[in-house]
Amino acid sequence: MQGSTLRRLIALLLVLGAGMTMGSDRARAGDAHLDASTILLLSFDDWSAMSSEAKASDFGRFMKDPEIKGIMTRLQPAFMEMMKSMMAEELESGPASSLPGGEKMAEIGERLMGAAMSIGGRMCENMTGRTAISISLLLDPTAPLPMNLIFEFGGGEEIQKAVDEMFSLLEKESEGEMKARTIEIEGQKGRCIESDGAGIFVVRSGERFTAGVHEAGLRAHLKSMEAGAVRLGNVPFYKKAMGAVGEGRMKFFMNLEPVWSMAMPMLSGFAADEGEPSPMAVISALGLQQFQGVAASGSMSAAGSRERAFFGISGRSGLMRLLPTENRPLAPAAFAPADAISATSIRLELAQVIPAMRDIVRTLAGEEEMQGMEEMLAGTQMMLGFTVEELLGDLEGTIFTFSPSGPAPDLMSMMMMGGSIDTCFGIRMSSRERLDGLLGMFSDPQISQGMVSKQEIAGRSAYVVNAPGMGMPLQICTTIEGDWWLIATSAKALRESLERADSGKGLRGNAAIAQLMGEVGGTSGMMVGFANGGQQLANALDAVRPMLGMAPMMMPELADPSMMFLFDPTILPSSATVKKYFGVQATRVSIVDGGILQERWTPPVGGAAPAEKDGGKKEGAKPSTGVGL
How many CB atoms lie within 10 A of CB 580? Predict the structure, then answer.
């Protein structure tokens, strides 16, 4: 068996192991004691406790539902057959049977994958304590790879048996190309199986196992645990990011600062084609280098689930100009229905759109294109009597959207006959004078050529844009209601929104939603929202189910025999089952020191369990005031 093919199979085993690994103070310190060059980390403070709690959660109960278990039982052999076919194509971009020995190699791959899933399942049942997968930079000329992948987990003899079985299988299937042998690294004994210096290296100390993909990386990882080593816990971004997300059974950390430090000099050396910007110029213009990384924590149990994610941002240039620098109240508008299945209010610095475009165009396109953009903006000013920047400055920046209750849209009918989903959204205004004048100007028949008309809807002056659609006209209706600029996809949607605003019986009076939002700290921030995830998913399934079987006929390139099971509508769970296990959730994104923080709370279906039942009240959370959103 060729070494490159076998290394791909080993990578498959490691990926399956990573997917499989979905406390104590000592366990938490384990993350902080990783090497300071760690750029990616996924860890669980107590694998067995996390696994038990997850099984008792709504999602765990969903996976044990007879309908879902039946679907999974049917999907597994079909999925294995598809993977076998994909492996065959990977060999030489053709069917395995047409290649010398290709069919045998595909069979080996299938056996390895099936065994890996079986062994992984057994390890899931027997792992204990802290479990972690980490990737760090490794600038060691003796290492076959510049990256260090480490897998740490706990367990006893059952885990050891699984590791030994995996090594024996790999040695047998490689027909002697890979050899298993005993090793001792930094005083810890174990075994490895390798080819060309890369493979799987596992050492054991009592009930703790540590695995790596090459010996140099495993040695470097074990040395990072020694006294005096430079550790992840001393990295400023790690301390800030993990402090922001707090505790949770699961932790995730990605640090881009070392990546940027290494990539920037390399990218600076790339010569761009004539007239084209360099990769470094693109990154700088978009402000991507200001994104430092992300950290997350989460817990899932019968009492609900909570996730927090911190996104590190070090500046406000390029696209980052659009992010606000302070939190603001984000109460929804009165036009939102009380029974909406979702609603989101997000605030952006819309006044920074033109300055951001200037930054990007000047850097990426040069002064000539910049001059053309300025001439276009000047021409627009002459036509309107004010600048685009002034118009955008009239937008306070809050955008509010909602999804009304009701059955799933008939996507097939929409595709065949045209039309759109009835909805309405609003943009909050700080001043309406310029927009009033702009709408009035475009409703002039001489300018709009009859495409824009002024009508009365729910007692307001509204503007209706009639544009050609797929077989029938597409209507966009808009008006200004108080300090909201409303935009709807039909006169019906706009009328209903305005009537709700008149009645005062909208979302603001929904006390249950107000209590739900209180669990994530209220409705002040950069973005707040709630969603009935079960109803949303049920609607999506109901909309897609009638079209799924027709997809291969509409797109013949999808009609691969090994993939046809993906287009069987019966592999989708019923809407009733989905709504039984998935319910509402609240999300809040706020501006914090050094970036933005996202918090999400999902109570158990059937009751909004308070955070105290999920291992303690979230630090910094504000109790619900009991008032509307």
Answer: 19
Predicted confidence (pLDDT) per residue in 549-605, tens digit: 777 777 776 667 777 778 888 889 999 999 999 999 999 999 999 999 999 999 999
φ/ψ of 467, rounded to 5, equals -120, 150
Name residues whose C-beta falls within 8 Å of residue 314's C-beta, 6 or more positions apart in sequence.
290, 292, 594
- Distance, C-alpha 561 to centroid of its chain: 31
Helices (H), 443-524: 445-448, 491-503, 511-518
Report residue 279 as tokens.
């990769």
CA angle 205, 209, 213 (to 5 degrees): 125
Q: How far apart are CA 50 and CA 39, in angstroms?
A: 24
Backbone angles phi and psi of 519, in degrees to 5? -70, -15
Hey, is 355 helix, strand or coil?
A: helix
Closest CA to 450 of 466, 462, 469, 470: 466
Q: What's the rounded mean pLDDT across residues 430-441?
A: 89
Cα 571 to Cα 590: distance, rounded to the nearest angstrom = 39
Residues 6+ apart with CB under 8 A from 140: 216, 217, 220
For 299-318, letters b (16+ CB in 10 Å) and e give bbbbbbbbbbbbbbbeebbb
Which residues pair with residue 179 across a beta bridge? 194
Distances 243 to 104, 251, 307, 557 between C-alpha atoms, Å = 52, 12, 14, 48
Mean pLDDT of 320-340: 88
Using the predicted structure, report yes or no on whether residue 121 has a pLDDT greater than 60: yes
CB neighbourhood size of 341 (10 A): 20
**Residue (of 15, 5, 4) closest to 96 by Cα position:** 5
Task: At 475, give phi and psi (nearest 5°).
Answer: -105, 135
Q: Is the pTM of this model over 0.70?
A: yes
Non-local CB neighbours of 257 within 8 Å, separated by 6+ positions = 237, 292, 293
Which range in 67-71, 511-515, 623-627 is most confidently predicted, on average pLDDT? 67-71
Cβ partners under 8 Å of residue 91, min gap 6: 5, 99, 102, 105, 106
Residue pair 304/614 in contact (Cβ under 8 Å)? The answer is yes
pLDDT for 80: 74
Binning pLDDT at 50, 70 and 90, where does residue 520 land?
A: very high
Per-residue confidence (pLDDT) for residue 9, from 0 to 100: 45
- Helix (H, G, I), strand (E, B), or coil: what is residue 44? strand
DSSP string, 155-195: --HHHHHHHHHHHHHHHHHTTTSSEEEEEEETTEEEEEEEE
pLDDT (tens digit, 9 = 90+) per residue, 152-189? 999 999 999 988 888 888 888 777 777 888 999 999 99
Q: Which of 316, 420, 295, 298 is nearest to 40 (CA)?
A: 295
Strand positions, DSSP E, 256-389: 291-301, 304-313, 328-329, 342-347
In SS3 terms, 214-243 reads as CHHHHHHHHHCCCCCCCEHHHCHHHHHHHH
Alpha-carbon span 95 to 446, nearest angstrom: 63
Instruction: Report how far residue 603's alpha carbon sits from residue 303's, in angstroms, rounded to the nearest whole number.
Output: 7
Q: For residue range 263-320, what is the model confidence (pLDDT) as tens digits?
A: 776 666 565 566 677 777 788 888 888 999 999 999 999 999 999 999 999 988 889 9
